[in-house]
């Protein structure tokens, strides 16, 4: 680190590590400030399923998959019902393919394109992942690589509590506070706010997204809106504060993610009346508030041996099974008994969904099925969850934080949940990867812009 301070301060060691690595590989001195000493097991990146959309990557091209920024932007437009940020969607799409290739070639991650399960809302397969399909392995690799880089220093545990601007309105320093309350001023010309959103601040969640406020929060306890507060104090614009990623399949027994691959491979969801209540394949995020509104705010995901076996590549699914959350029954009536659901309703729903899956009747919610469920049946009780917020500071095509007149605040950048994302309003606009794509993509962009002066 130079005597004049780092070239870039990154606040947050989740997706922010992408920015730190990109900047350091470009020759910049970087300081990473992270609030939790256990960040490799406690931040949102570590809890994710490691799905990174990459548009036009060589991994797609090798499989003959044609993708484009226009197609991704159209997917965002459709999923968000026209409310998503098209400028940011195109910006992320245009850099994402290059970024996942860089992650493979320069960061050393074992990247591949996931084609065995198709996430709702994406027109083509574009979610790239690692063999473990889990954030623990992803963050472990990024942290090891960053810690070993001679141009990157870490300050952990410490919280970035303020950013100072000079007389010209440009970033000139940060204030960093340790757990004892002692503060230090560090001079720097550039700051990347990668502190995630405000999911751990219950009052802010209740204010901006009351429909999910009573659900389980399944994210980092350090996601308290630090980036949003700092940027707002500096005159930054904010948007989409009601946007979030919900989930309808957090296993109640183990607080692990059952995963939506179960649904996409043919599982159905029943509420406590034993009935289906929505089109399951519409998306896992919107099923968070859907399930929260059902009796008892809980339900059961029902699947079979075929679905069980197909979900084995997912670490979260295996952990859920290993926890004992999965129950089995030889037929529908027995399933009703072990779940405590009304037998007539369970039998009727399994019969009707099987008929729809075989094409004998039209599904009353309009869903399509990969295959009908066959006995014996498995079930896992699930509860709704809030994973992370999707609103925050408005950024431009260079990841620069802007004010209400769309003017950049020189030297201030934001990524991930600290920035307003592309999910529109509420939970329904979330596409798989809408968390990691701006977390990694905006961090990558910010570091590139800082390195290029």
Lay out the secondary structure:
Elements lengths: L7 E4 L4 H10 L4 E4 L5 H4 L1 H4 L4 E2 L4 H5 L6 H11 L6 H20 L6 E2 L13 E3 L5 H13 L4 E4 L3 E7 L5 E7 L5 E5 L3 E3 L8 H7 L7 E2 L8 H8 L4 E2 L4 E8 L9 H4 L3 E4 L15 H6 L6 E6 H6 L4 H8 L3 E4 L2 H8 L3 H15 L19 E13 L2 E2 L6 E3 L5 E7 L21 H16 L2
Parallel strand pairs: 1-2, 1-10, 2-6, 10-20, 11-17
Antiparallel strand pairs: 3-5, 4-5, 7-8, 8-9, 12-18, 13-17, 14-15, 15-17, 16-17, 19-20
Account of the 3D structure:
There is one protein chain. The longest helix has 20 residues, at 86-105. The strands form 5 sheets. The chain has a 6-stranded mixed sheet, with helices on one face. Strands 11, 13, 14, 15, 16 and 17 form a 6-stranded mixed sheet that branches. A 3-stranded antiparallel sheet has the order 3-5-4. α1 runs parallel beside α16 and α6 (86-105) packs across α16 (436-451). Helices cover 32% and strands 20% of the residues. A hairpin with a 5-residue loop joins β7 and β8 (171-177). It is α/β, with parallel strands linked by helices and 453 residues long. It has helices spanning 16-25, 39-42, 44-47, 58-62, 69-79, 86-105, 135-147, 202-208, 226-233, 261-264, 287-292, 305-310, 315-322, 332-339, 343-357, 436-451; strands spanning 8-11, 30-33, 52-53, 112-113, 127-129, 152-155, 159-165, 171-177, 183-187, 191-193, 216-217, 238-239, 244-251, 268-271, 299-304, 326-329, 377-389, 392-393, 400-402, 408-414. The protein is built from 16 helices and 20 strands. The chain starts with 7 loop residues before the first strand and ends with a helix. The chain is elongated, with a radius of gyration of 22 Å. The chain has 2 domains: 8-199 and 390-451, FAD/NAD(P)-binding domain; 246-386, Alpha-Beta Complex (Flavocytochrome C3, Chain A, domain 1), CATH 3.90.700.10. Pfam families: FAD_binding_2. This is Fumarate reductase flavoprotein subunit.
């Amino acid at each position: 680190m130079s005597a004049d301070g780092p070239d870039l301060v990154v606040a947050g060691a989740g997706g922010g590590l992408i920015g730190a690595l990109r900047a350091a590989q470009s020759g910049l001195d970087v300081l990473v400030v992270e609030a939790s000493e256990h960040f490799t097991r406690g931040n949102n990146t570590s809890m994710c399923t490691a799905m990174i959309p990459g548009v036009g990557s060589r991994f797609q091209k090798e499989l003959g998959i044609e993708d484009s920024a226009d197609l991704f932007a159209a997917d965002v437009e459709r999923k968000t019902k026209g409310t998503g940020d098209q400028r940011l969607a195109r910006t992320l799409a245009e850099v994402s393919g290059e970024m996942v290739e860089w992650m493979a070639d320069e960061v050393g991650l074992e990247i591949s394109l996931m084609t065995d399960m198709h996430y709702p809302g994406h027109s083509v397969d574009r979610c790239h992942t690692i063999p473990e399909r889990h954030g623990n392995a992803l963050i472990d690799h990024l942290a090891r690589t960053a810690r070993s880089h001679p141009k990157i220093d870490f300050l952990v545990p410490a919280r970035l509590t303020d950013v100072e601007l000079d007389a010209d309105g440009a970033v000139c320093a940060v204030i960093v506070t340790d757990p004892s309350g002692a503060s230090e001023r560090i001079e720097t010309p550039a700051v990347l706010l990668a502190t995630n959103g405000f999911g751990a601040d219950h009052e802010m969640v209740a204010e901006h997204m009351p429909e999910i406020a009573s659900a389980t929060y399944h994210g980092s306890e350090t996601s308290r809106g630090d980036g949003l507060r700092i940027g707002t104090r500096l005159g930054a614009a904010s948007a989409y504060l009601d946007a979030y990623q919900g989930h309808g399949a957090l296993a109640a027994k183990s607080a692990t993610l059952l995963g939506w691959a179960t649904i996409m491979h043919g599982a159905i969801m029943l509420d406590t009346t034993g009935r289906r209540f929505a089109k399951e394949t519409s998306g896992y995020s919107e099923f968070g508030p859907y399930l929260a509104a059902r009796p008892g705010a809980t339900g059961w995901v029902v699947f079979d041996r075929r679905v069980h076996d197909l979900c084995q590549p997912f670490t979260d699914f295996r952990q859920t099974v290993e926890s004992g959350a999965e129950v089995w029954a030889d037929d529908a009536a027995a399933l009703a008994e072990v779940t405590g659901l009304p037998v007539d309703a369970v039998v009727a729903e399994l019969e009707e969904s099987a008929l729809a899956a075989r094409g004998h009747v039209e599904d009353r919610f309009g869903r399509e099925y990969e295959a009908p469920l066959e006995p014996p049946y498995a079930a896992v009780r699930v509860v709704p969850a809030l994973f992370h917020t999707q609103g925050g500071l408005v950024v431009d095509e260079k990841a620069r934080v802007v004010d209400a007149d769309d003017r950049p605040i020189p030297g201030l950048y934001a990524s991930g949940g600290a920035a307003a994302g592309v999910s529109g309003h509420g939970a329904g606009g979330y596409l798989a990867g809408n968390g990691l794509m701006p977390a990694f993509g905006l961090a990558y962009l910010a570091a590139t812009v800082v390195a290029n002066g």
